[in-house]
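S.,

As promised, the adenosine-5'-triphosphate run. Input:
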Amino acid sequence: MSNDHPAPHPEALRFENVTLEFPGAHRPAIEDVSFQVGRGKFVAVIGPSGCGKSTLLNLAAGLLSPTRGEVHFDGRPVTGVNSAAAYVTQQAHLLPWLSVRGNIGLALKFRKTPKEERNEKIDHWIKLVGLTGFEDHFPRELSGGMQKRVAIARALIYDPSIVLMDEPFGPLDAITRLRLQQDLLNLWEEQQGTLVFVTHDLNEAIYLADEVVVMSEGPGTIRRVLPVPFERPRQIGSLVESPEFSELYNDLWSLFSSEDVRH
Ligand SMILES: Nc1ncnc2c1ncn2[C@@H]1O[C@H](COP(=O)(O)OP(=O)(O)OP(=O)(O)O)[C@@H](O)[C@H]1O
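Predicted complex:
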């Protein structure tokens, strides 16, 4: 998304033989994980519950440190909180005392963006995520889907180097989820940013990503990295009708239903 550095590293994120053991746990959460995320790529991470998907994002965000191995961001080891990363978690985590405008503009305020520019950007993003008319509403007055829209706008508005999303559409109904998936596709295709997106949902991974990183059950290891060949811009409606979509879905499904992934 942004060009914070004069010559951005071609790899936004790289995990090198990363193992993470939580204190007192009887086995590592993830073990010997290596993969990379190219700059400008949309990578989905998929795997069974508890395989370490959130742990991967927490390591990328610098909220956890590897027990062994290294995590690199923009060609440099992550040694503390990665302030270049925007993190959208399962819960929207909006500030209840701030309106939609206030929540969306928070990161710009922290970055001391001049007020006029801030207001322009906020107006733009309110429109982009379809919240016109709700600018002055507070989070408690919004539906779950609207709260997610605010969280997504809040993360993307300041053009972060990388966006980390942890099942952001998890608790939503199927129709709201589909709408938001298409909205995210459109927004991301416009911004051409780097995005790592954790999901349980095979369809969602294929709709959205350039590559799907498939993890095995805990301790999490990388089982496969599958490229998603569909051109952009994508329309979910036409994707699902294509034979290539079913083929890729079946490939992914067979990875999960095969015996050795279950240990
Ligand atoms: N703070 C912690 N202390 C100890 N163990 C933890 C901690 N956080 C996660 N774990 C363990 O690490 C493993 C990986 O957890 P993680 O939350 O990364 O999995 P996940 O794939 O994101 O799961 P889900 O899909 O259910 O959200 C699990 O076995 C979990 O119990």
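The two ends are 39 Å apart (CA to CA). Residues 22, 25, 29, 47, 49-55, 218 surround adenosine-5'-triphosphate (CB under 6 Å).

- D.
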